Amino acid sequence: MRRILVFAKTPYSKTPYDRWLEGTGIEPVVLTTDGYAEEYRRHLRHVYDFADYDTNQLVEKTALRLARELGVEAVFARAEADVLRAAQLRDLLDLPGQRTASALAFRDKVVMKDHLKDRLAGGPVGLPDYRHVESAYTVLEFVEEHGYPVVVKPVSESGSLGAAVIRDEADLDAYLASPWRGTSMVETFVEGQMFHIDGLVAGGEVVFVQPFRYVNDCLSFRSNDWVASLALEPGNPVYGRLVEATRAVLDRLPTPENTAFHCELWVTPDDRLVFCEIASRTGGGMIATTLIHARGIDVDREWLYAECGLAVTPADPVLRPFAGMCIPPLNGVLEYLPAEGEPDCVHERVLHGASGQTFHGGVKSGLFLAGYAVAGSSEEDVVANMARVHTWFAETAKWRPLGSEEGAR
Q1: Interhelix angle for 100-107 vs 109-116, to 10°?
Q2: DSSP labels for 261-319?
């Protein structure tokens, strides 16, 4: 029996590794969070769970022991929190797949842009000016040099967590009074529409790519507003340019032989493409679910097959107009979360909450209370349908303010 070690920061319903590998002679060995373990154990022999999964270093210790004892042949890790720990394990045991230098280039935004700043010159996409933040003086000097606005953000978080847009002296003072505690970078603010491009590299070739437009933006969660990823039709004027730019980025980074990717680019008001960042993983939120509906490809499953040396099934050549929308929680106690009755444009729902649960608003762009795969006859129709879904959700979900008596609205 061949075995693959899987870092599984997803519920079984999203990543049923045993079903995906059924009949291949490959057995998954799963390390997961304590909240997901029970369901995995109903289907798999080797399941190990951990509290505080992202930061618990017993995950690494257990992974090393299991890899040696069970003779695993490969390592699979689809979540941002696992990219580096998986690469370091491959280095240690000389296993195939992404190694540490590559993982850092896709995870640390300063290392990433250092790789690209000279290699992208004269190409289809540019870079903002940026610096690694060594101290408060770095930010002050950067503002003096470039003026407002600037963006300060963690070098290795996802979902816009910890990002701060500094537009004036008051914003600067507010940031300096309560800065991000980890390692940060500062860069010039880019005005424009943000897009993301998701796809799959298998056997060293880009075998699938699909551009999306963000509806609302990645910071919408901070005002408890929804954000969505709208799949672009091939006839969209920026479709080809986004694909070309993403391929250029992948060509100029130490891209692994097999990986999903999630790339973010801006299109500026003067029609320039500017690079934001890229990750060597599947896109978060409802992106993977949307790709199943829009293009008939489960990127996680096909990426797993590529890591296992199995044949990858290509995506459907024809796009079905779809978007994935993510609705964050409000501040308060959730009294009713609708689990049915959506408008008929909804083809799939994903819920992360229960009645009686207390929330304190949105946390990051990829985390949501309710996610919906929304269809339409065109890009414009999908956008209109998402507005309908949001109106329905806002009118149907019931909340109670924090500190109020039960039953209040």
Answers
A1: 100
A2: EEEEEEE-TTS-EEEEEEESS--TTTHHHHHHHHHS--HHHHHHHHHTTPPPPPPPSSP
- Give, in order, the Cα–Cα distances in Å from 230 to each of 313, 325, 352: 23, 8, 21
Which long-range contacts does 80-88 make (Cβ < 8 Å, 24+ apart)?
80/107, 80/158, 80/279, 80/281, 80/284, 81/9, 81/53, 81/54, 82/7, 82/9, 83/107, 83/279, 83/280, 83/281, 85/7, 85/59, 85/60, 86/7, 88/60
Tens of pLDDT along the chain (409 residues)?
Answer: 899 999 999 999 999 999 999 999 999 999 999 999 999 999 999 999 999 999 999 999 999 999 999 999 999 999 999 999 999 999 999 999 999 999 999 999 999 999 999 888 878 999 999 999 999 999 999 999 999 999 999 987 654 567 889 999 999 999 999 888 888 999 999 999 999 999 999 999 999 999 999 998 655 555 678 999 999 999 999 999 999 999 999 999 999 999 999 999 999 999 999 999 999 999 999 999 999 999 999 999 999 999 999 999 999 999 999 999 999 999 899 999 999 999 999 999 999 888 899 998 766 555 799 999 999 999 999 999 999 999 999 999 999 998 765 544 4
Asked whether the beta carbons of 57 and 89 are under 8 A apart, the reply is: no
Distance of CA 262 to the CA centre of its chain: 7
